[in-house]
Design goal:
Helix content: 25-40%
Low-confidence stretches: 9-17
Order of helices and strands: HHHEHHHHEHEHHEHHEEHEHEEEEEEE
Largest sheet: 7 strands, parallel
Strand order of the largest sheet: 5-4-3-2-1-7-6
Mean pLDDT: 95
Radius of gyration: 24 Å
Distance between the termini: 57 Å
GO molecular function: alpha-L-fucosidase activity
Catalytic activity: a neolactoside IV(2)-alpha-Fuc-nLc4Cer(d18:1(4E)) + H2O = a neolactoside nLc4Cer(d18:1(4E)) + L-fucose; an alpha-L-fucoside + H2O = L-fucose + an alcohol; a neolactoside IV(2)-alpha-Fuc-nLc4Cer(d18:0) + H2O = a neolactoside nLc4Cer(d18:0) + L-fucose
GO cellular component, one term: lysosome
Structural class: alpha/beta
CATH topology of the largest domain: TIM Barrel
Shape: globular
CATH class of the largest domain: Alpha Beta
CATH superfamily of the largest domain: Glycosidases
Number of helices: 14
Enzyme class: hydrolase
Strand content: 15-25%
Family: Belongs to the glycosyl hydrolase 29 family.
C-alpha cells in the first residue's frame, strides 16, 4: 500500500510537470534557458533554398523581383530568363547534385561550432523536408527529390559535439492563404492553422531540434500565430521539452521582449553586457544570407573580423550564429569553408576562454583598447583576449586586481609569462618575442589569469 502511495504521488508529480508552462508570455518567459545553449557560444546558420538557384542579390530575391519590383532584379530576369519564367520554375533547377551532408558536418564540426541552424523553410514557403503541408512545394516533390533536412539531421547526429537547430519562417510572402488573412487584418487565421503550426509540430516531432529559430512574423501579432499555445506544447509535451531553446521572433512586438533568448535584430552586437541571454546572428558575406554569385572578395568578412565579433559577443554574454549560404548544387564555397576552419583553429587554442565561460565584471579593458574579458569561476580564471599583438612587447590590463604571491599569467598555447603589478589596480604583462612560426595562433590571443579578481 505504501509503495502505491509513493508511485501515485510520483505520477501526480510527473503529470504536473507536463503542464508546467501555460500559454501566456509570462509563463513561457519564466522557463529557464537550458544550460547547454549559454555554454555553446558559437553556432552556424545555413540559408539554403530555392533562392540559391538565381543566387543573385539576396535570399529575398522573389520579394525584391516581384513584390517590390526593384529594377536590378527585374533587369536580371529580363536579361537572363525567357518571358513568363516564374519563381516556381527555379525549383526544378534546384538539384543539390553535389550536396554531401557528411562533408558539410565535417566543415561545421571543424569550425568549433556547437550547434547549427538550418533553414527548413524561408519566406518563399518551399520546405526543405518532405512536408505533408506544402502541396508539392518541397524538396521531395520538386528539385532535389530528397529530404534535405533529414539528410543533414542524420549526418549531424553522428557528431556528439553538434546539436541540430531548425529555422522556420512563420509567414510566406505570396501564399494566397496568408495574403487573405493579411487582407482581413489577421482577424482570420486560416494560414497558421492549416500551414504554419502543422509544419512546426511536424519538424519538432520528426527531427527533434535543440534550437527552434523562428522568423518572419509578417507584421502579424503572436495571437494570430498562436505562438504561446505552440510554445507551451513545445516546453511541456514535445520530445525536446527539456533541451530545446527558442528565440524571440514569435509575432509582431515579441522581438527582444519574449522567448528563450533575444536576437533583437539581424547582426545585433550591442557591445555591452545584457541582462538576458542573446544571440548575434550575422553573415560572412556582409550583403546577404543566401549565396550570391556576384559577391566580391571585399564583401566577405575576414577571419580576423569574425574572431573579433565572436570575442566581443561572448564577452558581452551572447552567442554568435555565423551564417553561410550554400550553392544551389549543394556546395559550401571554399571561402566560407576557409573562414570556418580557421575559426576552429583559433578555438583549438583559445576555446577555454570561450566555451562554458561567463561574462566578467568588466567586458572590455578600460585602458587598453581591443581587450575583451571572459571568466570561468569554476577554474578561478579570468581571460583577457587581445585582438592585436602590441608592438612594444607588453600589454597593460587595467582592471584585474592581482596578488604578487597568488596571480599567475599564461599565454594560451604557449606558457607562463612574466608580469608586474600596477597602482592601484592592473598589471603589465610582458609578452614573449616570437617569430611568426612560433606564435600559438593567429588573429587574436588570450591571457589566462588565475589568482586574480
Amino acid at each position: 500500500m505504501h509503495h502505491w502511495g509513493v508511485l501515485s504521488l510520483y505520477l501526480l508529480f510527473i503529470g504536473s510537470c507536463l503542464c508546467q508552462y501555460k500559454p501566456t508570455w509570462e509563463s513561457i518567459d519564466s522557463r529557464p534557458l537550458p544550460e547547454w545553449f549559454d555554454q555553446a557560444k558559437f553556432g552556424i546558420f545555413i540559408h539554403w533554398g530555392v533562392f540559391s538557384v538565381p543566387s543573385y542579390g539576396s535570399e529575398w530575391f522573389w520579394w525584391y523581383w516581384q513584390g517590390q519590383k526593384y529594377p536590378s532584379y527585374v533587369n536580371f530576369m529580363e536579361q537572363n530568363y525567357p518571358p513568363g519564367f516564374t519563381y516556381a520554375d527555379f525549383a526544378s533547377q534546384f538539384h543539390a547534385e553535389l550536396f554531401d551532408p557528411v562533408e558539410w558536418v565535417d566543415i561545421f564540426a571543424s569550425s568549433g561550432a556547437k550547434y547549427i541552424v538550418l533553414t527548413t523553410k524561408h519566406h518563399e514557403g518551399f520546405t526543405m523536408w518532405d512536408s505533408k503541408y506544402s502541396w508539392n512545394w518541397n524538396a521531395m516533390a520538386v528539385g532535389p527529390k530528397r529530404d534535405l533536412v533529414d539528410e543533414i539531421a542524420t549526418a549531424l547526429r553522428k557528431h556528439s559535439d553538434l546539436r541540430l537547430g531548425l529555422y522556420h519562417s512563420l509567414f510566406e510572402w505570396f501564399n494566397p492563404l496568408y495574403r487573405a488573412d493579411a487582407n482581413n487584418f489577421y482577424k482570420t487565421n486560416v494560414f497558421p492553422t492549416s500551414k504554419t503550426l502543422p509544419e512546426l509540430y511536424e519538424i519538432v516531432n520528426k527531427f527533434k531540434p535543440d534550437v527552434l529559430w523562428s522568423d518572419g512574423d509578417g507584421d502579424a501579432p503572436d495571437t494570430y500565430w498562436n505562438s504561446t499555445g505552440f510554445l507551451a506544447w513545445l516546453y511541456n509535451e514535445s520530445p525536446v521539452r527539456d533541451t530545446v531553446v527558442t528565440n524571440d521572433r514569435w509575432g509582431y512586438g515579441s522581438i527582444c521582449k519574449h522567448g528563450g533568448y533575444y536576437t533583437c535584430s539581424d547582426r545585433y552586437n550591442p557591445g555591452h553586457l545584457l541582462k538576458h541571454k542573446w544571440e548575434n546572428c550575422m553573415t560572412i558575406d556582409q550583403r546577404s544570407w543566401g549565396y550570391r554569385r556576384e559577391a566580391k572578395l571585399s564583401d566577405f568578412l575576414t577571419t580576423e573580423q569574425l574572431i573579433g565579433s565572436l570575442v566581443e559577443t561572448v564577452s558581452c554574454g551572447g552567442n554568435m550564429l555565423l551564417n553561410v549560404g550554400p550553392t544551389h548544387d549543394g556546395r559550401i564555397i571554399p571561402i566560407f569553408e576557409e573562414r570556418l576552419r580557421q575559426i576552429g583553429q583559433w578555438l583549438n587554442v583559445n576555446g577555454e576562454a570561450i566555451y562554458n565561460s561567463s561574462a566578467w565584471r568588466v567586458q572590455n579593458d578600460t585602458a587598453t583598447p581591443g581587450v575583451w574579458y571572459t571568466s570561468n569561476p569554476k577554474q578561478n580564471a579570468i581571460y583577457a583576449i587581445f585582438l592585436s599583438w602590441p608592438t612594444d612587447g607588453y600589454i597593460v590590463l587595467n582592471d584585474p586586481i592581482v596578488s604578487a604571491s597568488k596571480t599567475q599569467v599564461v599565454l594560451l598555447g604557449y606558457k607562463s609569462v612574466s608580469w608586474q603589478s600596477m597602482n592601484p589596480t592592473g598589471l603589465k604583462v610582458h609578452l614573449p618575442q616570437l617569430a611568426p612560426s612560433q606564435m600559438p595562433c593567429s588573429w587574436a590571443w588570450t591571457l589566462r589569469l588565475t589568482g586574480a579578481m
